Amino acid sequence: MLDKNQIAKVIARELKDGYYVNLGIGIPTLVANYIPEGVEVQLQSENGLLGMGPFPIEGEEDADLINAGKQTITTIPGSAFFDSAMSFGMIRAGRVDLTVLGAMEVADNGDIANWKIPGKMVKGMGGAMDLVASAKNIIVAMQHTNRAGESKLLPKCELPITGLGCVKKVVTELGVFEITSRGFELKEIAPGVTIDEVKAKTKGRLVVEGEIPEIQL
């Protein structure tokens, strides 16, 4: 299976030269550490930064430089700081080419639930709803099952919805899945994982056709 860093590394392959990219809280933030050589992207953080770099080396953190998840970060030459109004203006204007988000659940039609568990205290929905409504492409980085071993790739989201029909691809510890009209289409499988295991842990519609290549890390 893939660990969190390997999931981020797989997603980093989706980055194209010139992209403006927003990385959500959790596994998505790790993508900043795996930008392919020769590819220049601008990472946007909705708390007011364009030009986010990789995580700092231990001992070189600057407490004034944080991402939306309050993790310390670095900046790249030419980075810019601004208020949240401008940040969300960028997002709502469709300036973000790719958004990478974590999720609690994803449905096989591309719906996503990632902001609230009923009964648990939350500060608010954050920027997720703006991002799923405005980004040109949304990829989810998540664990395939919850702590009880139940599938998080479902026929229908059971938790409060963040966005409808917006997710294009899901990467979990088991593999890479594209969301199409037929459901979750398995495109690549993680080393050491079997097709039967993927089927057993995927509750939503799953499409497995032909020889599925193993993810090359």
Provide structural commentary.
The longest helix has 9 residues, at 4-12. The protein is globular and about 45 Å long. The chain contains four helices and 13 strands. Helices cover 14% and strands 24% of the residues. It is α/β, with parallel strands linked by helices. The protein has a single domain (4-38, 87-207), classed as Glutaconate Coenzyme A-transferase, CATH 3.40.1080.10.
Q: Give the class-level CATH name.
A: Alpha Beta
Provide the CATH architecture: 3-Layer(aba) Sandwich
Taken in chain order, the helices and strands follow as HEEEEHEEEHEEEEEHE
Radius of gyration: 17 Å
Q: Whole-number average pLDDT? A: 93
Give the CA-CA distance, first to last residue.
Answer: 12 Å
What share of residues is helical? 10-25%
Strand content: 15-25%
Q: Give me the secondary-structure category.
A: alpha/beta
Mass-distribution shape: globular
The neighbouring-strand order within the major sheet is: 4-3-2-1-5-8-10-11-12-13
Please give the number of β-strands: 13
Uncertain residue segments: none
- Main sheet: strands, sense, barrel: 10 strands, mixed
Query: What is the count of DSSP helices, taking H or I runs of 4+ residues?
Result: 4
Q: Which fold name corresponds to the CATH topology?
A: Glutaconate Coenzyme A-transferase
Main traits of this protein?
single chain, about 220 residues, alpha/beta, Glutaconate Coenzyme A-transferase, three-stranded mixed sheet, 13 strands
